[in-house]
Amino acid sequence: METPAKAYLGLGSNLGDRWTTLRMAREALDRETGISVCARSGVYESMAAEGAVGQPAFLNAVLAVEIGLGPHELLRVCLRIEEQFGRIRRARHGARTLDVDLLLYAEEQVKTPDLTVPHPRLAQRAFVLQPLIDLLPSGRDPVSGMKFVDLLKRLPRAELSTLLEKDW
What we know:
Elements: E1 5-13, H1 18-31, E2 35-40, E3 43-46, E4 58-67, H2 71-84, E5 99-105, E6 110-112, E7 115-117, H3 126-135, H4 148-153, E8 162-165
Antiparallel strand pairs: 1-4, 1-5, 2-4, 3-4, 3-8, 6-7
């Protein structure tokens, strides 16, 4: 029997009841046809990044999912789930009830106008790398070939997130 392919999804929230949003989003993704949550990182808290000065802190986590969907189908599900949780895209890097990013899709690299996998800023984001390392401690960036742990070491210590809960 062939092992199902895996994808890794980054979850983030900095508006409303962040904990409940992450838990309910995880459950909503797991109920989707073609997606089965098989592992989850710890939940980390970090300051808003990339010019998002003055925003509330984010809770972030990564889910490993077994997938029976193509990358574009998976992206559409992620966007739909964001909308279900009240995500409104007003400004780039704006505050949000829920963000669901497709970080990795199997071993594939995808570059189309609406989707880039691995996520194009994965290597520059401690709030993604830290929870991703929980699930892939010896994992490597498919683009650079560098280990995720080595990419994290290159980032400023001030960007590191705080682990709040391992089992959620």
